[in-house]
Structures are given as C-alpha cells and as structure tokens.
Specification:
10% strand; alpha+beta; two-stranded antiparallel sheet; two-stranded antiparallel ribbon
Length: 160
C-alpha cells in the first residue's frame, strides 16, 4: 500500500503534484486576472524570482500555460504567459478556493476580483453537478463504490 499522499494513479494526487502549492495557484490566479508578464507577476505576488521562474516553466512544460512572445516598442522581445485550455479548466478550482475562503476564513474578506459571467455580468460560483446535470450539494456526494451502499434520501418526488 502506498504511503498517504504518495503519487499514484489518483487524479487528486496527480493534480496536487502539478498545481498543489501556494505559488503555483497564485500564479494561475494572477494570469487568469490578466497579469501575464514575468515582472508583473513577480511584483504582484512577491514571489522569489527563482521560484516564479521554476513554477512558470513547469506549468508550460505540462501544457497549463503557453508562452506568448511580445515586444514593447524599442525593447527586446519578452514572454507573456497565457492559460491554455488545460489551464482554463482550472478556473473552476480557483473559483471554488475563493468561494470557500470567503465563506470559512473570517479574516479573509478582500476579493481581488470576483469572477463574473462574460455573457451577463453576474457573479460566478463554483458548484457540483452530476453527469446528468443535476446540481448537488456536498452532503449528497459519496465515493463511487459507496453509492450502492447508501440509500438515497427521499425527495419530494419519491416521498409521495
């Protein structure tokens, strides 16, 4: 049996191996907010240069970020970082972390930017849904193997 937290075929362990440390998640947060140049990221985060460089390199190597060259007039070419489709899929994780922090960490109240739906401007919340599209809460979610052992709670439709 593998030690707790050991790298395995577990998707949570694999995801944490890639993005599960403070600087990486904050880098992804800032790039999603539009801060995408190395110097701007360094200033925003206060992250040591060597760590920032290593985290960006790892995210690019794993296809979470892509490098987009740019050149300011009269300056040398530089790189900006953009989320790939793989990186954009992590936006739900960032939204969930923000939502959880606002709800459960009493000293956390400043929101740098609340995610909003581009189509209507309404705030976005992270949530759970089943593959059939039903919105569910955490109390109605069990590990896949346990689903057969747990009888579903009666709903209005089944309680009649």
């Amino acid at each position: 049996m593998a030690a707790p937290g050991a790298q395995s075929s577990c998707p949570i362990a694999g995801t944490l191996a890639l993005v599960g440390e403070k600087w990486t998640l904050l880098i992804l947060r800032d790039i999603h907010r539009g801060i995408c140049r190395f110097n701007d990221l360094e200033e925003s985060l206060g992250c040591p240069r060597a760590i920032l460089s290593a985290r960006l390199r790892k995210l690019v190597e794993h296809g979470v970020l892509a490098v987009a060259p740019y050149r300011d007039p009269g300056r040398r070419a530089r790189s900006a970082y953009v989320l790939t489709a793989k990186g954009r899929d992590l936006v739900v994780v960032l939204a969930a972390l923000q939502q959880w922090g606002l709800r459960h960490l009493p000293k956390v109240s400043e929101v740098l930017s609340t995610p909003v739906h581009l189509g209507c401007g309404s705030p976005v919340t992270a949530g759970l849904s089943c593959s059939r599209g039903h919105r569910v809460d955490a109390d109605s979610v069990v590990p896949a193997g346990a689903a057969e052992e747990v009888a579903p709670a009666p709903t209005r439709a089944t309680a009649r």
